[in-house]
Fold:
Amino acid sequence: MSTTTSTPHVGETHAEHEHHEPGLIGRYIFSKDHKVIGVQFLFTGLIFLILGGLLALAVRWRIAWPTSEVPLFGKMLDDAGTVTGSEYAVLFTMHASVMIFFVIIPILVGTFGNFVIPLHIGARDMAFPFLNGLSYWMMPLAGIIILFGFFVEGGAAAAGWTSYPPLSVIASNGQTCWCISLILVGTSSIMGSVNYITTIIKMRAPGMTLHRMSLTVWSIFITSILVLFGTPVLTSALILQILDRHAGTTFFSHDGQPLLYQHLFWFYSHPAVYIMILPAMGVVSDVLSVFARKPIFGYRAMAYSMVGISGLGYIVWGHHMFQSGMNPALGTTFMISTMLIALPSAVKTFNWLGTLWGGNIQFTTPMLNALAFVSMFVIGGLSGIFMAATPVDIHIHDTYFIVGHIHYVLFGGSLFGVFAGVAFWFPKMFGRMLNETLGKIHFIGTFITFNCTFFPMHIVGAAGMPRRYAAYAVEQGTTNTWAHLQPYNEFMTYSALALGAFQILLFVNIFWSIFAGKKAPRNPWNANTLEWTLPSPPVHGNFFPIPEVYRGPYEYSSPLVAEDYLPQSRKLDPEAEEKERRMEAEGH
Amino acid sequence: MTLRAVFVLGLALAVLVGCEKKPGAGVAPPQAPPAGGSAPASASGATTATGATTVLDPAKVANGATISGAVMVDGNVPAPEPIDMKAKPECAGHQAMKDQLVVGANKGLRDCFVQIKKGLEKYKFTPPSEPAVIDNRGCVYHPHVLGVMVGQDIKLLNSDTFQHNINCKDNNTFNVAIPPGGSETKKAWFKKELVPTTFACDIHPWMGARACVVKHPYWAVTDAEGKYSIKNLPPGKYTLEVWHEAYPGLKVAQQSFEVEVKEGEMKTQDFKYTFGG
Amino acid sequence: MAFNMERLRAASIAILMLAIPASRLFAQAGEPAPRAGAAVALAPSGAAAIPLMPEIISTYGASVDWLFYLILGITLFMMILVFALFLLFVVKYRHQEGRRAKFVHGNTRLEWIWTSATAAVLLWLVFEQRDTWNEIKQKDLATFENPYVVRVFAEQFGWHFLYPGPDGKFEPSDEKDIFPGINPLGLKDPKADKYSSVLMVPENVPVICELISLGKYDQESGKSTLPVLHSFFQPNLRFKQDLVPFHPAKIWFQILPGTLRSQDNGERKFEIACAELCGLGHYTMRADLQVLSEEKLKAGIGYDWKTAKGKF
Structure:
């Protein structure tokens, strides 16, 4: 972060006046610069990633060895150092809540949304910089409140990340912290999405038509629409839950409708699954195209399939409720819509394959992670078809099959997308290159241990092993049907511990590279999008002057130029320009 | 600037929300006057007039009086029934009888809690140093009813070879899993009186116990023949009260009696329950 | 972490186990597949086998498994296809100095082909599963003649099963009459009808259960704990249904004839689990499903269910 602040002020508008001489705090803490806010989201997300990861390891430890002491952290739980059944419920609830609301959504939407959108569309900043800062600061505040749950009487929320009433209505006060925190996080998301939508619609550089936007921008645009329409529903459900808990209302409890909450919750939370995967899809599409040195295959199909996913995403929520007591006739309806939503996902997968075909693939760290995303998303997507089939869902609903599926989508998908995106934009964020060797070791280790941790879940899940069970042995007072699967459980825990250990490399790499990494040039990957024409990192205000955009972002290996890339803002000589126009008309 | 203000405001809000949720005042001495937020002591106003009370050690009461007696049941008490333990394979071989209503051959009622309800307001008591003990043994709690003094330690044991837990659902709640052969001590646990405080096991649904939490040591739990005795009482006028856990059809004829004892006196006071009808 | 050889061994067994189910599938995929038969054939037969799906004991279980293996086949095929192309492309088109990537933006015809092919497969799956779902969850229960009826109560954290008794009518229950351990269901007369922590059912007879979530009533305080969600899950039946408080649901299943083997002596146990998080003791909420011969059932529930003609 080495830029002088004097340059951007030339030609700055009145609106920027307030930012005249930002001190250290103004520049790095309460900044309104979209790039700083993006990095803030990233670091907050990474801190919560450590926490969520440790919670997950404690969960795995309990399942594998219910009676032995948790190393290092056991004494934080109780005197015996083991995870008890009630602590176990807290652990898996908080693991899921932290990972979903404080790691994946902030990093994917917060970091990439903030950092990438203005740079990709050629804008100086977000439409509402103050709202942007506010949106970030809601997040750590919400984080403090959800973690505060650990210190209230009765402990943190333990009703699962879905928090179904009536259980959540009679749960300890940590549940109230959980609700308040999620309302704040939701508010933060809404503020962010309003900002993204406005920025994308109103602030594109001249020549940047919708169909010249990168797929990352497309994905975040669509994600923002999902957030904007979905989050208020969750917020209202949470407010009703708080009223049920503290004001004596009976919306979901007593003789109210417990299923109403489930409908409201999944009306947000199913689109939330797409909120957590669409930006990763966008990022990965960009990374694949850059390192395959090839235009993205079926650009419009890619963009419109995301639109299709978001549209269908709103009418599939009921597939989480096939066994909930909802009218079974609705089951058939939701089954059909769920089968349909597999279609755009399949289209995307085939298009990624098409992008790789005939490429000149460079195996950099971002590319390896993006390739991992594609392959893991294939497994995660295909395993989803089992759940969409209502009769099969009867058997595998609430078993480890679901846990395996969601981790293939959210870890194998979203998190590998995060790794790819962070590695890809790291030079632009910090002006330094990530260490490639460390990055590759981290990738290989993570990829192998990830599969060892989560693939067996499909097998034990097909055997019917229920999720959210603290033990599977008769001495623990529980069922005996799955006791013979304990070797699987132990194996998954060993793999999870290794998976956790490999993430240390990620943090070492990030922090070491920020200070001691190789200095990054303007365009280390020879990429086309606008940010790579700027210094690394770009100055506050980004573009001076605002660039003119002549083409889409994926013109790699174009015959018009000698190099294998053709930046969006490069003006060609009149002859080549004429050729390009003709090619465009032919449908290239 | 404004952004900073919003942040500070938010933080203040978080702290405020936090304070609301904070558990009641830490480990307060048992006889301390009730603090701001906590509920007032249920028994009487004795605690507020700290200056007027004197600390009494029952072991040092010279020539104390004794109240003893028996709790009897009238009526056709059902024959003891085995607990349905079929849902829990680990309990096979530990078949026990239901322990909610245990009547001896002489029709004496076990597990009644008899205490001096009124008349001790002018004294203060220090809880005993040894803990009250409850054991998970053979898939039932031993004892089924235990007396605990406010501020006394509670020791939770598990003599079985499999997992148990004790979920204390009211008064000062806790939920502790006790590994096979393990134990855990809850230090100076209860802060206020409550008869009864319910203990239950979340793993074995039939397991239940009642802790009767009082501020003084003048209480007894009836034995298998329904007998009790309360010793070392200083002379005075007392209200003696009996409690037995709710059981369908079981009614007490008269729950409390006024009893006046002189120095060294031995008084007898029986209680009567009726069953059925 | 106490690292020992025992755990290392367990881990290596687990790695081996990963490979076995996959190879089993390939080994048996060639068998003729009339819907139900295929699933039964694929189901593991002995304790030594590594179960992908547990043994089926319900009449509709086979059609669930047929769908499972059908989808498994399709998805495995797709996965192998995609991964093969993926690996091929990644290896074949790896970076080589001086080579230039193909300048291709897409292929509309190819995109239409794979989109409609996928859509066709998905549509096939939609129609393939509809009947099974309707059979399990939408059956008109009035069509059964003389079914065996049981009322299923779930509480935090246990199951109770109430039988209608010789008069065929269930004893009415009221929350106010609940005494944990003595009258856990709050029956008007706790001696009138048999209740048990075991679900005893006959073979090859439609069984209808009414699922009720029960609040815990405390006589001392006069307050009741809210009933919560539970889920009745029996993997061998291939059945699962949530219990929604205040909204009792009726479900049905029928035990497959032949479930009682000659060595079982007219009595076989399976486990019922709770599959919806219901609180801290959720994982301890288990009960036995007991499949009994007619004589053993009569002894177990204390009356002849056939003459009782139980009704809700």
Observations:
- The longest strand of chain C covers residues 148-155.
